[in-house]
Amino acid sequence: MSVNEIELKKTGQITRLTNNTFQFPQQIADGFYAANYFLKSRQIVAKFMPNHIVTCQWFQRRDDSMVCGLDEAIALVHTFAHHPEDLIIEALNDGDIIAANEAVLTITGRYEDFGFLESLIDGILARRSSVATNVYELLKVTNGKAVFSMADRQDDYLTQVGDGYATYVAGIDRVSTDAQAYWYGSHGVGTMPHALIQICGGDLIAACELYAKTFPTEKVTALVDYHNNCVRDAVLVAKHLGERLEAVRLDTSRALIDHYFDDQDTSSFDAHGVCKELVFATREALDQAGFKHVKIIVSSGFDPKKIADFEKAGTPVDVYGVGSYFCRNDTCGFTGDLVELDGKTEAKEGRSRYPNPRLKPVQYPIY
């Protein structure tokens, strides 16, 4: 998937990603990932009640959410459903903003052809929409500042490709792994972890020098919280690297208070972790030392609430690094319900078809 293809998709000039784009495990065809009761239902229906036409719709219960995973779900159906050419599929587009109880996908056809895929579709839509909505919510409060996704370390590595797609759909293209950047033909970015400094015996300057020597065409972003003395070490590394230093990153644990505050009264604010006051102090120290070009990146525990608080105070942050918040998987929970049988309403009590004029028909095949 190239950058141009993704951009065309986002502008609506490409209708769908295709089932050649996604890499599905072949065990899906054997029911390995399907809920067992769906497999049993398919067996019963195929044997005793075949050829009934049902409509299944998918929705969630949260307003102002960003739906994602629709193209993947459709590709899944086109790949593993029986006789997918006979199915009528209608869907919204990845990246659409949706309301509670709004149908985002409907499939009409023989139950025995696609019903066993219901729970897989639930999971795809829930995961991708949760990540996309988390990103969407966070970007609302950043005032246009760059955000770097560090979500790779927060979940199973197999989630990275799909999460990277959802992250990009929602508006972030700075990610930490090649898997996350797969969708737009790019690569992960980043400079050094604490491990590099540790292997250098705690010598931040040595770590930065080795980085610069190994990657001579790149500028350095120095991780300055290793000694829990961000202000001091930011100036120290700036004096040593000069123009080679692009940014410093503050990643102080919430369990610690930076040594900058050792002789200060912190009773009027919470000095733990990366607090606003620490960022202001770092910016002031860098500027006074003549390093106004050095940017400040912050990470560790950032979510929309914390970022909104930083932005309200005008905190001099250039880039926010966000990890665990993006991986919250309970933001959007999708449900698939059968709501029609042979063209007539038939659903469990409390459920009915949710007509949605925004749904668009999806052609088969998509190549």
What does this structure look like?
This protein has 2 domains: 3-132 and 331-362, nicotinate phosphoribosyltransferase (Alpha-Beta Barrel); 190-322, Alpha-Beta Barrel (TIM Barrel), CATH 3.20.20. The chain is α/β, with parallel strands linked by helices and 367 residues long. Residues 1-14 have low confidence and may be disordered. It is elongated and about 80 Å long. The protein is 33% helix and 15% strand. Helix 10 (276-288) links the parallel strand 8 and strand 9 (295-298).
Q: Which sequence of SSEs, written as H and E, runs from N to C? A: HHEEHEEEHHEHHHEHEHEHEEEE
State Rg. 25 Å
Strand content: 5-15%
Question: What is the count of structural domains?
Answer: 2
CATH 4th-level superfamily of the largest domain: nicotinate phosphoribosyltransferase
User: Total number of helical segments?
Assistant: 11
Global outline: elongated
Strand segment count: 13
Feature tags:
11 helices; disordered N terminus; elongated; alpha/beta; 367 residues; five-stranded parallel β-sheet; nicotinate phosphoribosyltransferase; TIM Barrel; 2 domains
Give a brief rundown of this model:
The chain is α/β, with parallel strands linked by helices and 367 residues long. The protein is built from eleven helices and 13 strands.
